[in-house]
Records
---
Amino acid sequence: MNSIKILHRPTFVLFVGFLFINYSFGFQKNDQIRKSYDEILCNPSKSTTNSLAQIKQFAESGNPNWFLRIGYFVDANNIMYKATKDSKYLKINADILGIIDSQGEKLSVGKKWIAKIGQDDINKDVDNQEFMLYEGYLLRYAAELVYLVKKNGLISQISNYNTCLNFVEGNFKKWRSRSLDGGFKDESMLYGIRVHMGAQWATTALFLSSITESSADLSIYNSFLKSFDKEFRRGLRSRGIFESRRQYVWNATWRQAFSEQLRRRVQSLGFETEIQDVAHGNHIVQYVLSSYELGFKSWTLKDITRFANTLKYRIWTPSTRSFADNVDGSTSVHKSIRGTGWRQSDGWMKLMVYDKDLYAIYKKFYYSNENVQKSYLNLQFLSNFMYFNSVNEG
């Protein structure tokens, strides 16, 4: 496993009106951040965003349309464990996964959850169907959970560890087997039609490959990861004159039609080229960081620096304290994407433990936006700040 190496150690001072604000790391002590986090988590109201009571209600519904929200919750608790080494956060996650698992219909491989979605919802097209995309949002962080439990010798503390492990392994295999045995005859469904879709399943494969005791499964995971890395790197473009400021820019669409699903899509729609939006770009950044931190050799500190530079020099606009829609700094042509660049906590924000320049950006942004503090990403923001402080204090 690679240890975290900090690339920059500056102290930032911002002049605002007549006040000097010191943006050195440590904006809040960790006990203060943890108190804020736990107050949200333990709030008994189901209407409190990301309270355990609310997330349990989502889990008990068995509706995969909530899996995205639950995935962010699981990620935040995983991060809190890494920052505090308090296993209560992992136990909470395991309990939530156990509830979801109990709501699924058992299949020969994995389980099935049917989405119930209103006609005004953006995901209305998958109403009364399984929802692979949102299963992917959840499974990547469920996979990290079982990895953390096993790696840190906590299996005896997590009574339903095997249920959680089977939840992840079974549903990864479910979608892979459907892709292989169905109309595609390859792993098309895992790669998806957009890079960020594939990144979700690649992240799941990373963690499973790190704990599996099956040589056959290990071969499957590693083969998929090798192919994913190869195809994603085809689409990466480095920008910038000086190495210290070079950035990565890439498309949301795959550069080549390497899978059967993509080949059929090209035949039907022609070859698509669409710049990566920032919000979904989180999934790719998350994948790269997980790959590096787990000790895989596909991604390096140079790559991480370039992703961080993309955020600093293309996505973030200091004068307006805002984030662009797309990774090249442009405004999206899609109304549904415009104004979503602020969704940073699922991947981009995690770069700040490698590049402290980003800390000042996120502090200024988060604490000047009350709506963000009350959003469904609130726990992720807080846990990332908590982890940042714990790394630096260490």
---
Amino acid sequence: MADGYLVSDNPWMNEAFVAAAKEAGGEAEAEVTPTLTPTPTPTLTLTLTLTLTLTLTLTLTLTKAEAASVLHCVDDMSHACTTAHAVRDVAARLGTEGHLRLHEDDAYALAARWPRVSGSDAPLDLLWLDFGSGVAVSRNPKPNPDPDPDPNPNPNPNHSPHAHPNQGRLDEFVRAWWPRLRPGGLLLLHSALTNTVTRAWLEGVRARARGGGGASGGASSAPEHAPSDPFGGDEVATLSFLEPHKRFQNSVAVLQKRPAGWGEPVHTTYP
């Protein structure tokens, strides 16, 4: 055993190799490459190919420990050029249709009906959020979410200068789906680093992790009209991956749910 690999079919112990060496006239040396065989480990390999649209949300759930995993795709099919419906055909060609369910629905409204629609109340392992500019469908340059706006507001000095008035839709999504994510589960947010709308929201999450404010965009504190913490008080660990050679659609931000009292298991004393 070496780093989890079992070295098998060692050529120096292989009878055919020994016989060939003798035939060549003695103790011949040869360049050989041992075969490395990974020790058996239960794994799941999932390949998904589709064109994403503004309102597409993907969730991965394991209904039971012994059951097959299921990829749930949620799309309201409202985009004029949507190809989300084609995912069924792709899955059929790959022979993975048994692991896929496509829901033509609104992701925000679906959370409340999820156990009935999915047939299970089991927690989700992963949420992939990729509705992009769907968090900012309104192009009104001066929308104000406050129903009774102050005509002479005092700007919050701690509020992100890049905050977008519609980024609250991200809070709305998290508030609806975060409780359905298992402890240790992941929320993956596509393309959140280099655009104004989602970067402001992500900075709020980072500030919250540092103990400096809510997820709704404040660098140190959320604005007064901001809703309550969409993460329900859970600790949120964040990690972002950037594709620096691209200007659009170029990153993934990973948010891990770490509620109080939860942590990865400890199996050994040393690494």
